[in-house]
Amino acid sequence: MTDARAEHHDPRGVLKAHGLWAKKHFGQNFLVSPEAPHKIAAAGGCGPSDFVFEIGAGCGTLTRALAARGPRLVALEHDRELVPVARAELAEFPRVEVREGNVLDVSWPALAAEAGQPLRVYGNLPYHLSTPILLGLLEHPETWTHACFLLQREFAERVAAPPGTRECGTLSAYTAVWTKARIALRVGAGSFHPPPKVESAVLVLERLASPAADIGDEARFRAMVRALFQQRRKTARNALKALHPNADEAFTRAGLAPDRRGESLTLDELARLSRALQSLTPEGARP
Questions:
Q1: What single string gives the DSSP state of each residue in the chain?
Q2: How distant, in Å, are the alpha carbons of 40, 77, 131, 257 from that of 174?
């Protein structure tokens, strides 16, 4: 799906015309590649029946590629100097609304209720906000169906790493419970202004209809995973002892060797261990 209005939109010219520049404290790296916005829009799979929420409208470069695919679209921008710029650049798209705000203040349930349907979420995310944004979405999986984010490549690859692999970490395990994750494409530093010092990648998360494993209480599962991966060099038993005095018995109930490391445990094994720990820990004594 294409639209003549989505032709190449170079934010360098837009910034210059308004006497603006990339602000380091906002983590701004504007996408200037002619091809990348359309590839990103396609990777997330949005269409006319969708409600899209974009994190970081910027100068409207990715927004235009998304708008050309026909969805209803709300684009959030935190930099108040860019809000009127984005609104002017996107005025020709009647289904696009640019709002000013901080994504960390967004209520995902309220936004999905406003949309009347689960969201498709897109964004070129600054590194310092990537983890809290993903965690916020994973805490409310019922509010969205797909997320498509341009991220620092190493971070994106860690998130997509399946449990049981060396690259897996705390966020990877959380993500695997609720999503099917994949790297859709890689984007070089030259595709941005100013060019970052690292490569980027597009991470696509497809939310599952139900959890991939029975983890029991989600808050207690997350506490267990944090303990395992914050002390990666320790055996799983030693990593969990401070958190759960009954760790040895939990490994026995889960049918797992306690001398394994957390990064070696698959999602199914993590779920079994979590349920075993929960069965041994009084409800009122949650970690």
A1: ---GGGS---HHHHHHHTT----GGGT--EE--SSHHHHHHHHHT--TT-EEEEE--TTSHHHHHHHTT--EEEEEE--TTTHHHHHHHTTT-TTEEEEE--GGG--HHHHHHHHTS-EEEEEE--HHHHHHHHHHHHT-GGGEEEEEEEEEHHHHHHHHPPTTSTT--HHHHHHHHHEEEEEEEEE-GGGEESPPSS-EEEEEEEE-SS-SS--SSHHHHHHHHHHHHHTTTS-HHHHHHTT-TTHHHHHHHHT--TTS-GGG--HHHHHHHHHHHHHHS-GGG--
A2: 24, 27, 11, 22
Distance CA 212, CA 246 (A): 26
Residue 213 belongs to some domain of the structure: no
Q: State pLDDT tens for residues 167-206.
A: 999 999 999 999 999 999 999 999 998 888 899 999 999 9
Pair 269, 133 in one domain: no
1 pLDDT tier (thresholds 50, 70, 90): very low
Are 171 and 116 spatial neighbours (Cβ–Cβ below 8 Å)?
no
Burial class (CB in 10 A: 0-12, 13-18, 19+), 174: buried
pLDDT value, residue 158: 96
Which residue in 78, 178, 82 sits closest to 129, CA to CA? 78
Radius of gyration of the chain (CA): 21
- 53 inside domain: yes
Record the pTM: 0.90
| Neighbouring C-alpha atoms within 13 Å toward the C-beta of 190 | 1
Residues of the domain holding 161: 4-207
Into how many domains does the chain fold?
2
